[in-house]
Fold:
Amino acid sequence: MYNLDSTKLLKNLMKDYFTDFQHAKKIAWCTSVGPAELLRAFGFQVYFPENHGALLGATRMAGDYIPSTINLGYSGDVCSYLTSDIGAYLNKQTPLLQHYGLAGIPKPDLIVYNTNQCREVQEWFNYYATEFKCPVIGIFPPRHIDEITKAEIQVVSEQFKAMIPVCEQISGNKFDLDLFKSTLGLSKQAATLWKDVLATAKNSPSPLSFFDATIHMGPIVVLRGTVSANHYYQNLLNELNENVRNKRSMVKEENSRIFWDGMPIWGKLRTLSDLFIQNNSSVVASTYCNSWVFDSFDENDPFTSSAKAYTEIFINRSEGAKMRILKEMVDEFRIDGILFHDAKTCFNNSNSRFGLPLRFYKEFGIPVLVIEGDLCDLRFYSEGQSTTKIETFIEQLEMHKVMN
Ligand code: SF4
Structure:
């Protein structure tokens, strides 16, 4: 059985991250691709509700709480991070208790969201701003862009700067440009290490699967901009490189290499991982894990570069730009086929709804598969149907390789 030793370090790091909230002076909530570095530069400890949503999905607690949010008037078709997270809050429950001994989620002094990923985060965070009677700041970048212009970056950069007086008032600390620069520098290092970690999967056999990467991405989401995240990823990278040298991998024989597009199905990570391993197939790359690779960060130009980095993320791009990015990744990772996860409650990160898979297949000849499911709400996922589709797809990929 293939296991990564770094997982033990990861557990300790995440435990420390959560238990540290008990001693926090000021806490800011932030979206997963929000301006975390700027918040850290003011001394806020930063909490990410999406991470909590993913935990609710992975522990399969989400289904218990979604109905409470629906009873509040929210549709069961909107983001199941939102519905499970608010539902858990309404029921005064959290997996943080069992995993890290926290009685509840950390209470916010400031809430910040960035709609670069979706409108849902705005509704979700505004709910809590009302609940906690807490100040809330929104960043609203242009959406679904093809090539990004200077004018667009300027708009977002000004919105970042407009956060400063609010952050100063709530944190009690004056803005320190040097601290912002050094925090962004740390974040850039973390993002580069994370990119290198993901790039180890370019090797065959791959030492890292998409399913493992969704677990090891915890620190790049919640701890980027800290030294501890960088230490962690250096350690993980060393281990993966060692495994490449020793040809250690999750599959004995790698007969096909697959790209996962869209959200993970958090409650089925283990089952899906086993399914691909049993079929000698490696899921080696994804748009999802790649979302925390920020090539544009530049500590010498912190406002412009972080505005650019957080605006050019894959989810915020046009269909044409997505086609180009996908093609680059397919070539780099030597992908045999793409699996598109059509997540029922996240159309924002489901790329199969406007014909992209078929266009991709026609233009580049790479086989594609669409499976229906969801990030947290397992009522939208049919295990039997999906297993059959995936096994058939893997057989087709192997035949496709033989014929080509
Ligand atoms: S991108 Fe999708 S999963 Fe993430 S917060 Fe928005 S709707 Fe939810």
